[in-house]
Specification:
The longest helix has 30 residues. The protein is an alpha/beta fold. It folds into three domains: 230 residues, FAD/NAD(P)-binding domain; 144 residues, D-Amino Acid Oxidase, Chain A, domain 2; 169 residues, no CATH class. The radius of gyration is 25 Å and the shape is globular. Bound molecules: flavin-adenine dinucleotide. The site of flavin-adenine dinucleotide has 37 residues, from α1, β8, β12 and α8.
Length: 593
């Protein structure tokens, strides 16, 4: 079936999981005639044995899959919708049998950017098939080794295919083979949690987590909710990613199929609170749920169990993401920290677009190709470090409903205010903006660390600062809801590069964060906390960033003054100028003979 003569490709992708199949499609959609090979030992027809984790997408990944990969219809027809994220904390940890035993943050309306849950086996099987139809070559085999030659020298990938050893030649090699770390181990590139290694990013901010999960079919959904909540929400509670909390852990509940009803339910636990040997088997996981989240225990037992998995070490990072030697690490092969907020596939979205642009520029021998590689590598390293920061001190804070509700509102403000427009406007690919981002976000990172410290302090003091609901617009100033956006980039389809006014979004976000922070200081620490030099310093930082945003915006508005919000719409408006209404119909009945 395969020739033993070395085959040469522009890009060889090792691993055809979510990251690998998406990267291949994105390359082929953006670089005409590119030669791509994919390698994966899994059979093309996936079964229950191939069920994978990573089933929920947030706005970044959803826009990537639907808009950038052109899979809107495919997702609607084959996967389940996701109406945002719900959060639940037990009122009393000893009482968890039904929904009334929990405090809730419910999504109360349809979200602005539609998202999905995925049946991963189905997604990977189908997109692999689409890739083959577009011209990618698939090798159903296992990568044995890769020769990472320096610079632009051709690389060799050694593969075992149906018992035979073959070699593939490649200009660029992408490791998307997940936790096998093919390139990571070869280049000593992977960073794991170090025991007693401190709180810095080089130790994953102290993140030390594991995970156990099950898939279950034909569940009795009414045990969770009967779907009737006419005064609470204008959307489904079930078709959301439901997050359940307790001390040192959180659980996801994700609807991964409609027919039959299938749920993915799993826990992320922090080893310092819940050691691996207390949760690493199906029996122990079930017993944990029975005592701590009886509702989920009952839900699982109402259906048929499909699988159980335990992963003792979840988080890791990489030192380099995109090398000057034309190798790239992507997806789980590069980094993952925690499944909270479902950021894995969104990090893949940012990374895939960066990799495509580097490879496009290098194949076209553009003068700034290496500058792009270097800048995108630094940007994505910073970006994933900021994602890693989202889980700092989770072990202490997750179970505290009051603290976590404030933290979620804070994190939502950054995500919807800054990161979604940044992604949508392709600012992560804009060299000058990338440098501006890197320049300012370091100080923002210090501020966020400081907020985490203050949240932990309040938790240790046992303070209740109430509940902040990220979906509502009646708690912060000016009717601001953290999920709303500051600009008209969605309404006016500012989807082409440079169209979305990122500077307006940034300054508005910093202002909203400043309001959040002032309220938080007041509620948590009163006048003394408000007037402490540290707090004032950070409030001034936020106000200064508002000023920077306004300053950059002036240049941006000047430079883009002749750029239409959307060139397709501008063209339509030009075309319509010649339009003349004709009050007539074409005859459709044959005249009588
Ligand atoms: C518990 C948990 C929950 C998560 N939940 C979410 C979530 O809800 N949402 C989200 O966005 N992210 C989530 N993630 C992150 C998630 O793992 C990633 O988003 C995503 O699944 C990574 O996909 P991947 O393609 O990189 O890896 P994988 O899906 O693992 O794919 C790797 C592929 O490489 C292949 N392979 C292995 N060895 C070789 C070899 N030698 N040669 C060739 N191929 C090989 C494998 O067969 C596999 O198909 C979660 C992670 C964990 C651990």
């Amino acid at each position: 079936m395969y020739t033993t003569q070395p085959q040469e490709y522009d890009v060889v992708i090792m691993g055809a999981g979510f990251a690998g199949v998406c990267q291949a499609r994105h390359l082929m959609l953006n670089i005409p005639n590119i030669k791509v090979a994919l390698i994966d030992p899994r059979p093309e027809e996936r079964t229950d044995k191939d069920m994978k984790i990573g089933e929920s997408m947030i706005e970044g990944a959803a826009l990537f899959v639907c808009k950038e990969l052109g899979l809107y219809e495919y997702m609607i027809e084959n996967h389940t919708p996701k109406n945002g994220l719900n959060f639940h904390w037990p009122k009393d940890p000893a009482q968890t049998s039904n929904l009334d035993d929990y405090y809730h943050l419910w999504v109360n309306r349809q979200t602005d950017i539609g998202s999905f849950h995925m049946n991963r086996a189905k997604f990977e099987r189908d997109v692999l098939k689409m890739n083959k139809e577009m011209g990618a070559v698939f090798y159903n085999g296992r990568v044995l080794d890769v020769d990472l030659t320096p610079g632009d020298a051709i690389k060799t990938v050694k593969v075992k295919v149906h018992g035979e050893d073959i070699e593939l030649k490649a200009k660029h090699v992408i490791d998307a083979a997940g936790r096998k770390f093919i390139i990571g181990r070869k280049t000593d590139n992977v960073i794991f949690h170090q025991p007693d290694g401190g709180q810095g990013p080089d130790n994953l901010y102290g993140l030390n987590n594991g995970s156990a999960w099950v898939r279950v079919r034909n569940i009795d959904r009414k045990l969770f909710h009967d779907g009737y909540d006419p005064t609470g929400a204008a959307t489904s509670h079930y078709y959301a990613t439901n997050h359940w909390f307790g001390h040192g852990h959180w659980l996801w509940m994700i609807p991964t199929d409609k027919d039959p009803l299938e749920l993915s339910i799993g826990v992320i636990h922090h080893h310092e609170v819940i050691p691996a040997n207390s949760i690493n088997s199906l029996d122990k996981f079930s017993a944990f749920l029975k005592e701590n989240h009886k509702l989920l225990y009952q839900l699982i037992n109402s259906g048929e169990l499909v699988d159980f998995h335990y992963l003792p070490r979840l988080g890791h990072n990489s030192k380099t993401l995109y090398s000057q030697d034309n190798w790239y690490v992507l997806g789980d092969a590069a980094c993952i920290f925690d499944a909270f907020y479902s950021f894995g596939t969104t990090m893949i979205a940012f990374a895939t677009e960066s990799i495509t642009e580097i490879i496009r520029a290098k194949l076209a021998k553009e003068a700034d190709a290496e500058t792009k590689r270097e800048a995108y590598n630094r940007f994505n390293l910073r970006y994933v470090q900021d994602v890693n920061r989202l889980y700092r001190y989770h072990a202490k804070q997750l179970g505290n409903a009051s603290i976590m509700s404030w933290r979620i509102s804070f994190e939502y403000t950054w995500w919807f205010g800054l990161h979604v427009p940044l992604y949508l406007g392709k600012w992560h690919l804009h060299l000058r903006y990338v440098n501006t981002y890197l320049q300012h976000t370091k100080r923002v990172g210090n501020f966020i660390n400081h907020v985490h410290d203050q949240l932990s302090l309040l938790g240790e003091q046992g303070k209740n600062i109430g509940f902040l609901d990220p979906y509502r617009a009646d708690q912060l100033l000016n009717h601001h809801s953290p999920v709303s956006h500051a600009d008209t980039y969605l309404e006016n389809a500012r989807y082409e590069p440079r169209r979305c006014n990122i500077f307006r979004n940034s300054r508005q976000t910093c202002l909203n964060v400043a309001v959040w922070y002032a309220m938080f200081l007041w509620k948590g620490f009163g006048i003394a906390g408000f007037l402490s030099p540290r707090s004032l310093q950070y409030l001034f930082l936020l106000i200064a960033l508002v000023g920077y945003g306004a300053f950059y915006e002036i240049f941006y508005l000047y430079q883009t003054r002749k750029l239409p919000a959307n060139s397709q719409v501008a063209q339509r408006n030009r075309d319509v100028q010649d339009y003349q209404y004709r009050a007539k119909l074409q005859p459709w009945i044959a005249e009588a003979q």
